[in-house]
Design goal:
The two termini are 28 Å apart. The longest helix has 56 residues. This protein is mainly alpha-helical. Helices cover 81% and strands 0% of the residues. It has 3 domains: 106 residues; 66 residues, no CATH class; 75 residues.
Amino acid sequence: MKVPFLPISKERSKAISRHYMGIGERLERLFPGLRFSLEQAEFRIDHREWISLGLYCALIYFSIVFSAMLTIFTVARMDALRALSLSGLSGMGVGFAVFFYFGTYPKLYVSRRVKAIERHLPHALRQLLIQVRSGMPLYNAVVSVSRRNYGQLSEEFRAVVKEIDTGRSEMDALDGMARRNPSLHLRRIMWQITNSMRTGADIGATLKEIVDTIMEEEKVEIKNYGATLNPLALFYMMAVVIFPTLGIVFLLVMSSFVGMALDLRLILSGILAFILLFQVMFIGIVKTRRPSGI
C-alpha cells in the first residue's frame, strides 16, 4: 500500500495517528463508502485509522506551509497580524486539500485499478478462448495469462494460480477473484465462467459469447467516444485559435480608438500561458473520456 503525501514512514505515522482516532470517527461521515473503497483497494487498514492518518498528514502540512509562509512574510517586512492571517489561511488551505485528497484517494485508486484491469481484459480473454478451444485445460490457460504482460490483470490471475497451487479448487479461486475484484466486467465474466463449470457447460462456448459481447461493447464505446471528440475539437479550436486571435484584434482596435498604449509582450505572454494551461486540461479531459479498451 502506497500512502499519498506521507512525510514520514508509514509505521511511525500509523502509530502517531492513533491519537486522533476519536476525531477520525467523527470525520468519517464526510467520506461515505470509505470502508468499501479501502477493501476494494486492498489497503489493509481500518477506515477510522485511515481518516486519522489523513488528519495527521493534514496537520503536518499545515505546520510546514504556515511556517514557510510566515518566514517569507516576515522577511518581506509585512505587518505581523496580516502575515499571521495569510500564513494561517495558506496552511489551512493546503491542510484541507491534503485531508480531502486523503479521504478520496482509495476511491481514486480503485478507479485507476479498474481501468488498468479492463484495458487488457479483451486481449486476455481472447488468449483464454484460443487456448481453451485448442484443448488446453483452463488451469494452464490461466497460468499462461498470468505470465503475460497484462499489467494489473496478470497480477489478479497470478493470485488465482497461487490459490490453486495451495490446494484451492479452480472454481473457488475464480469465485474469490470475482468477489474481491473492483471491476464489474471482470466479476461478471468470472461468474459466467464458474457457472459454466458448475453446470458442466462448454467453457469455450461461454468464453466465445463473452468475447463477442465485449467486442460489441467496445464498438459502441468507440462510437460514443468519437461522437464526443467532435464537440471537444470545436471547443478546442474556439478556445485556442479563435478567441485569442479575435481578442488581440479587438484590443488593438479599441486601443487605437481610445489612444491607450498596450504592452503586447505582457498580453502575448498571458495568452501563451492560457493556451498552455488549456492544452494540458484538454489532454486530461480527452484521456478521461477515452474507453479503457483502447
